[in-house]
Design brief:
This protein is mostly helical. Helices cover 62% and strands 1% of the residues. The chain is globular. One of its GO terms (cellular component) is plasma membrane. InterPro entries: Pur-cyt_permease, Uracil/uridine/allantoin_perm. This is NCS1 family nucleobase:cation symporter-1.
Length: 556
């Protein structure tokens, strides 16, 4: 289906290209308020990402240093390797289910996450979840850049011995060499981002498979050096746990996996909007999450297991594993690979999303590119190397961040699937008129705002208080695991509170009999049409075709 020229389509209204796409890709229709939209935030005219593009997105997302460190940190929980593997798979299947849920509203409407939230939070209220998500993404952006800079440090130390002198002087907790590596990666990521979404898509299409090849080579090398007979898959420390005693620990491991992916999961609407159909997005998620992650998990367990006989100790950080291989080619290849992998996840998970979030605050002043630069600068100000340095810090940090993400996720799912029943009036998300469907009360939906507070405050407390008391020696260590479930608690609370408030005092319009509405319950009419309009126009076009009318849309 293609959209012919009509009075409803305007010329580009931005001084920059739409999120790096050709000018005019965003459908800024007549009547759209410039305070609410620009080419970056407007519904897409063309949604052409295939299942492979989504699959490659997840390959880049999974194969990062942070992913390996988080997966490796599960061994410190005291459960056997096979139990770690089971926890990893169960966790990723949960991620797949929720990712599909959050993908649909953005794919069907062709708009990013902060715009989708306007139908729930109100035209102005949508800035609340956007800013929260933007700050979280900045934190993760800094963490991932720091972890990649550690790999680059190894390359410098191996090939430029004099660089060791730069390890002594430090500023704000980071060595001079660390600052150099961080700056190089910071600039490289900005360069890729600045070239736009198509350049990013091409990068992740290449980066994901390339990292896979190197990780397979690393696993095969270590296993061959150790000898298969010398590899034990039991990497747990301490006394082995019985079956019943291990179940709550495995549940904690599952929660940690979901927490790690909670950011990309919430952000996924920013990428699902480019999917040529919802079915294509779901196929990409299937291959990119459970299938891809199963192979990733096996590689993680095998590689970590082989480090014991080869190096005499368990090493779960792949950067340190490569560092221990005393061969220049291995260090060069491994270091650059992990740099590439981490740059990939950082751009797709932590650069694009805050770019949309900050642009959403003032679309007429902040472009997508400017929003991304705000995130890049903010990542340095947070000095992530000072708070992300060990297993306990990883779990603690994930709990706090997830506590903020969970309620936002629950509110979005409740609002789209339960309250509005998958019906969104796309054009009304771009008007400041008080007669608009999503104006609510001065631009804010009070039910959504109360749901954020009601779910966010107790969830953040659950994420912070138990582990703080454990660290202070006031509680047994077992109580600290409650914090690992903060995402689930926040998601459940957000879902229940918003659904309840909307039932008691309905605010979100049901749009049961209106036209020009994106209806997620209708057939996926976009499948097989690479040149697509927005979902709302596509659904309307399909209805017109069925009744023998054209209505300005040509169906082929």
């Amino acid at each position: 289906m293609s959209q012919s020229s009509s009075p409803s389509v305007t010329r580009p209204q931005d001084v920059v290209e739409a999120a790096g796409l050709p000018a005019g890709s965003g459908n800024m229709r007549p009547g759209y308020d410039p305070r609410l939209g620009n080419e970056d935030l407007a519904p897409l005219r063309r949604q052409k990402w295939s299942s492979y593009n989504i699959f490659a997105f997840w390959m880049s997302d999974v194969h990062s240093v942070g992913g390996y460190v988080t997966a490796g940190s599960l061994f410190a929980l005291g459960i056997a390797s096979w139990q770690v593997l089971v926890a990893l798979i169960v966790g990723i299947v949960i991620v797949q289910v929720f990712t599909n849920l959050v993908a649909k509203p953005s794919q069907r409407t062709g708009v990013p996450y902060p715009v989708v939230n306007r139908f729930l939070f109100g035209i102005k209220g949508a800035n609340v979840p956007a800013i929260i998500r933007g700050v979280i993404a900045i934190a993760w952006y800094g963490v991932q850049t720091y972890l990649a800079s550690e790999a680059l440090n190894i390359v410098f130390l191996k090939f430029i011995p004099g660089s060791a002198a730069l390890l002594e002087p430090s500023f704000l907790g980071l060595s001079a060499l660390g600052w150099i590596s961080y700056a190089i990666l910071w600039a490289a990521q900005v360069a890729v981002f600045w070239n736009g979404m198509e350049a990013i898509r091409r990068f992740i299409d290449w980066a994901g498979p390339a990292v896979y090849v190197v990780m397979i080579v690393l696993a095969v090398y270590l296993v061959s050096q150790a000898g298969w007979e010398n590899i034990s898959l039991d990497l747990s420390s301490g006394e082995p746990l019985g079956f019943w005693a291990s179940l709550p620990v495995m549940a904690t491991a599952v929660a940690i996996v979901v927490s790690y992916f909670s950011g990309p999961m919430l952000n996924f609407g920013d990428f699902a909007r480019y999917g040529k159909s919802f079915r294509a997005v779901k196929r990409g998620n299937f291959w990119g999450l459970p299938v891809n992650f199963l192979f990733f998990s096996i590689l993680t367990v095998l590689t970590a297991s082989a480090t014991v006989p080869v190096f005499g100790e368990l090493i779960t950080d792949p950067i340190h594993t490569v560092e221990r291989i005393d061969h220049w080619f291995a260090i060069l290849l491994g270091g650059l690979t992990f740099v590439t992998a981490t740059v990939g996840i950082n751009i797709v998970a932590n650069f694009i999303s805050p770019a949309f979030d900050f642009s959403n605050v003032a679309p007429h002043r902040i472009s997508w590119r400017m929003g991304g630069m705000i995130a890049a600068v903010g990542s340095v100000i947070l000095t992530p190397w000072n708070w992300y340095s060990n297993d306990q810090a990883i779990h603690y940090t994930l709990g706090i961040l997830s506590a903020l993400i969970g309620p936002l996720f629950g509110i979005l799912i409740a609002g789209y699937y339960v309250v509005s029943r998958q019906r969104i009036k796309v054009d009304d998300m771009y008007t400041m008129s008080e007669k608009g469907a999503y104006w609510y009360r001065k631009g804010y939906n009070p039910n959504a705002m109360w749901a954020v507070v009601g779910a966010g405050v107790p969830t953040v407390a659950i994420a912070i208080v138990p582990k703080s008391l454990v660290f202070a020696g006031l509680l047994d260590a077992g109580w600290g695991s409650i914090s690992d479930f903060s995402w689930f608690i926040g998601c459940g609370l957000g879902f229940a509170l918003f659904a309840l408030l909307e039932r008691v005092d309905p605010k979100v319009p049901r749009l049961a009999s209106e036209t020009g509405v994106s209806d997620g319950t209708a057939d996926d009419v976009l499948e097989g049409h690479p040149d697509t309009a927005t979902a709302s126009l596509a659904v309307a076009g399909a209805a017109d075709a069925a009744s023998g009318e054209k209505a300005g849309v040509q169906v082929r």
